[in-house]
Amino acid sequence: MPRPIILGVVGDSAAGKTTITRGLVRLLGEEHVTHIAADDYHRFDRRQRAEHAITPLHPACNYMDIMEQHFREVRAGRPILKPVYRHQDGTFGAPVYVTPRQFTIVEGLLGYHTEALREVFDVRVFLAPLEELRRKWKVDRDCSRRGYTTDQVLEELDRRESDSATFIRPQRRFADIVVCFVPGDHGQFDAEVTLGRGLVHPDLTPFVDGDQRGLTIVDAGTEHTLAISGGIDPGYAATIEEAIWDRMHFASHLRSERLGEFTVGTQLHRSESLALVQLLVLYHLVTARASVALGADGLRVAS
């Protein structure tokens, strides 16, 4: 059996990591995906962090060496005994036995902080939403799900700012795909997707049409950025999606109408820009798996 394909999704707290990966898990099938939260490798619980005056964004607050060891084991297809951090109350639970499946998705804060970690991933995604938007998402999430007050969340964001600037944001330079969501003019989020040189991305230049239908490209040397309007015409978005699916015809069994779905409260919504982002990531996952199945070590062309 080919080794697992490893996707890294890195970004600051409440950057949208779970929103991006949820649709991918639905397409790939939960029975084929192992999920690992890098937060499980925190060295200190919530009370201890307060006593040490350290944030979870600092490498010293995490067992980086054990993370490196475990991720290498997963890439090799070997099981691990993974620690568990419980966000609900900020304490640790009993470790769990994790067996790698066809795909492994690792979400976290420091996934690209060391070279040993970076080498594990077949596909590296970094999420960098507009900071004002991320702060709103964090307040909404932590107040509704983690028992914080608004003032507590805002104070914690201020405490974390220095570590975020020092340790989290610099990791974007190691990503194959950097995704920045910003509020658009259509009641949806626009997506700015920077495609790095580490992987060969699908050529979408035939679909660039200025601002008329919602897709533009900005060249920047060795990488370029797709600007996907949240108000992109759904029919035009479907045409672009079809072109990407054609590039991975061997994975046509994964096709689904559920790409781009997200929830606000109990309301289910769909975003065409989110769907295109998810499909670009999916493209790299399934082509990497096909490459590994044929005996290669993956598709990476540069670090």
TrEMBL record:
GO MF: ATP binding; phosphoribulokinase activity
Statement: the UniProt record of this protein carries the keyword Ribosomal protein: no
Entry superkingdom: Bacteria
Pathway: Carbohydrate biosynthesis; Calvin cycle
A Pfam family per the record: PRK
Domain Phosphoribulokinase/uridine kinase: 6-183
Keyword Transferase tagged: yes
Protein family membership: Belongs to the phosphoribulokinase family.
Biological process according to GO: reductive pentose-phosphate cycle
First-level EC class: transferase
InterPro entries (UniProt xref): P-loop_NTPase, PRK, PRK/URK
Enzyme Commission number(s) from the entry: 2.7.1.19
Entry-linked Gene3D superfamilies: P-loop containing nucleotide triphosphate hydrolases
Catalytic activity, as annotated: D-ribulose 5-phosphate + ATP = D-ribulose 1,5-bisphosphate + ADP + H(+)
Record's keyword terms, sorted: ATP-binding, Calvin cycle, Kinase, Nucleotide-binding, Photosynthesis, Transferase
Protein name: phosphoribulokinase
